[in-house]
Amino acid sequence: MNLEMGLYQQQTMKLVMTQELRQAISLLQFSALELSEFLEEQALENPMMEIEERNTALKDEPVYNMPVMWHDEPSEVQEKEEEQSSPFDRIKDDRERISDYLIQQIRFLPGSEDDKRVLTHMARNVSDSGYLEGTYEETAALFPITEEYYEAYVSKLQSLEPAGIGARSLKECLLLQLERQSPRNHFAEMLIKDHLEDLAARKWKQIAKNLDTSLEEIQQVYDDVQKLDPYPGSSFGGGDHPGHLYPDVYVERDGDRFVVRLNNDGLPKIRMNRQYRHLLETKEEGEATEYAKKKYKQLVWLLKSIDQRQQTIRNITEAIVHFQHDFFEKGPSAIKPLTLKDVAEEADVHESTVSRTTNQKYVQTPHGLFELKYFFSAGMNNSTGEQTSTFVIKSMIKDLIAQENKQKPLSDQKIAEYIKEEHDISISRRAIAKYRRVLNIPSSSKRKRY
């Protein structure tokens, strides 16, 4: 074998990911709130860019509550006629954190400043879910206290609002809430203290036998415990989702068809700073002029990227409306199987573009507010080859379980047989169990009531 060294010319094609292309892709992925924050950051870095102040209130824009899970019926639109400087002012993204709320209460407690300093430190170690993180050893490294005094501080912290705050375990959290009830249910407290795991696992017969009590009493305690809050800090800031969401796009009925309208009002208005315009018009060369031209090009590219983002959202939403016309006509029960590939071909874009565009983007429909990803699901065939969306199948399972006799709940096999008989869809028991777990519905043995 001869290995020769030399210089050769070779022609290749290579995709270069420029900074502008990265920015365009990022804008497509951003939610409306993230895009607004990004534009404000860009305005600080680019003197040619200016975000227009909004003095006009958006009176006619409603506030929308997001459904808790996909399979819940969307709540009705709750309209508020409040005047706001920006729709993003209504998003509870800057809500007070639980630690701040605790510190406010500590300021009004009786006691020395040293006590309040220790309590304030502990309050800052309360997680967003409401649990006390950290140990006695960590606290003692900062403050000269004994373990006995530490437990006294913990009790003081746990006496604050809301009930259950500052707990170090789920058991302690539930007990703190039960202890504040009036009248107190000592039997429930005893069950939580000594039999929490068996109660959660629905080993009610075993508990009833050991305590010589009835199944009905055990079941009643279980129902009462379900009303307690396992995460007492979650109603404050720091959660994953804001309390309210605004749609990126609207789908509205226009006669016998549906039209797509972008929600451009939710984005900041951008304009060029007039104070720097003269630098673009001057014929003189210099660092200031070159800098101004560079920043102007960045501004033009940013505006083009935003326009492209909005147009892509519109095109993909129109493709979804084309495939899911029955959903917009009749509601969630009529949703059809749909893949990213179907929409990509209809909108003439790549599948990855559809995936980026539908993530964290919301559409207001005649049936409520939905994330665009909601409309994609696999399907199952019946005997005639017609496909039914897995969303619809999940809805069938949910409705069957809601209507079942709780003393004789339906097994997964019975549900599969019913769907086959009533809807001519063959589905395995294992698939039913899988969808049931997705819906957070326990097995038949754990749904049984006495």
UniProtKB/TrEMBL annotation:
The entry lists its GO molecular-function terms as: DNA binding; DNA-binding transcription activator activity; nucleotidyltransferase activity; sigma factor activity
Which is a Pfam family this sequence falls into? Sigma54_AID
The record's PROSITE patterns line, in alphabetical order, gives: SIGMA54_3 (PS50044)
Per UniProt, residues of the RNA polymerase sigma factor 54 DNA-binding domain are: 290-449
**Would the keyword DNA-binding turn up in this protein's UniProt record?**
yes
| Residue span, RNA polymerase sigma factor 54 core-binding domain | 90-276
Q: One biological process GO term for this chain?
A: DNA-templated transcription initiation
So where does this one cross the membrane?
none
Q: Under the cellular component aspect of Gene Ontology, which terms does the record hold?
A: DNA-directed RNA polymerase complex
Query: In the record, which residues are listed under signal peptide?
Result: none
Q: Which UniProt keywords apply?
A: DNA-binding, DNA-directed RNA polymerase, Nucleotidyltransferase, Sigma factor, Transcription, Transcription regulation, Transferase
Family designation: Belongs to the sigma-54 factor family.
Give the matching PANTHER family: RNA POLYMERASE SIGMA-54 FACTOR
What protein am I looking at? RNA polymerase, sigma 54 subunit, RpoN/SigL
Task: Write down the species.
Answer: Alteribacillus bidgolensis
